[in-house]
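We emphasize that the prediction below concerns an isolated chain of 409 residues; any contacts that depend on oligomerization or on bound cofactors are therefore not represented. The input was used exactly as deposited, without trimming of termini.
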Amino acid sequence: MDVRTPLARRTAHPFVFSVLYLPFGAIGGFLATVLGYKLKQAGLTTAEIGVLVTIALWPNVLKVIWAPIVDTTLSAKSWYLLGVVLLAGGLASIGLLPLGRSSLVYLAAAVLALNIVATILGMAADILMAHLTPPERKGRAGGWSQAGNVGGSSLGGALGLWLATHVSVPFAAIVVAATMIACATPLLFLPSESRDHRQASFTGSLRQVGIDVWAIARARAGLLALFVLVLPLGTGIASNFFAPIAGEWKASADIVALIAGVAAVAVGLAAVLGGYICDWMDRKTAYVAFGVIQALVAVGMALAPRTPEMFAMFGIAYAAATGLAFAGYAALTLETIGAGAAATKYNLLASVSNVPLLYVAAIEGPVQTRFSSAAMLLTEAGLAIAAAALFAIVVVATRRRPPSPALAG
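Result of the prediction step, given as a token string:
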């Protein structure tokens, strides 16, 4: 496996990555919370809203296909600037689209395009984080990056929903878009990534990308990382449906927005804590443990009384568990990929990790519509606990055993 590390002079404080990843999370939070709430008000079912959630996830599953272009052409800083400008402009434009069943086709196209652009921005941040983080701080860098990612999702959703309900959807989209642009400021102070993995020709660089990726796939540690990331652990998918189902807990739009804001703080703190934990223990074990914690929170929410207070308590706890899980994912991914062609390797694992988001989202929307919100939460928890048990079995079954001592003659 390629474990080339960044040069000592090419380092950055882990906090920087919370800022760089914030737009990636904010776009998802805005689309899930603002569009989800407004479309539910327009009379769409949870299953119909779930179709948009699923469409939004597809670019994150397929992004490894275009990651080699980011690895082999422009600098990470250039890709980031291009991505954040297109993302902010696209979000400001989507605020002008009508929200209703008749506009689902247009909304689906816009959601797909925005999420493709978001993957490019995320890849640029991936490259900078992989090349500017020493091995002993990969957990902390992963934690801070996910504090920005998931915290940005909560902040984008909370700020966007409050502005959308108190002013207008277009105004909310413009404010969130302006915040995204501001997140490019750290690029002025960061060193550039190493380009040692690039060759003189484009085809040579692509060949080196392939070598780097194959180094992960042929190692047991890499295969175990790929396997655990495809399991339905720590997905956080249920939070995409919290805004549409808030009425069951008698939670108003203001309460939903307030909870999302508090959850942003909780998820950020949990992600940072999770990153430090991942620097203290085995990162695969930490990732699985965090997924089980989220499952237990989902069970508690399913069984709790339907009151605004319970919605707030479990919504914040679920967000914190998501922060832990995402920190575990980022730390494990950074540990596995090393440096080199970081965008392709990081997004290979990211694409794999988004597969469970895709199928869990496809399961939970119809389960909630046909049965209940409690059934949706219990389904998510059951999938996660079964996945944790399966991974433990695979680890034991593939563990290398010492050779048997030779029998005395």
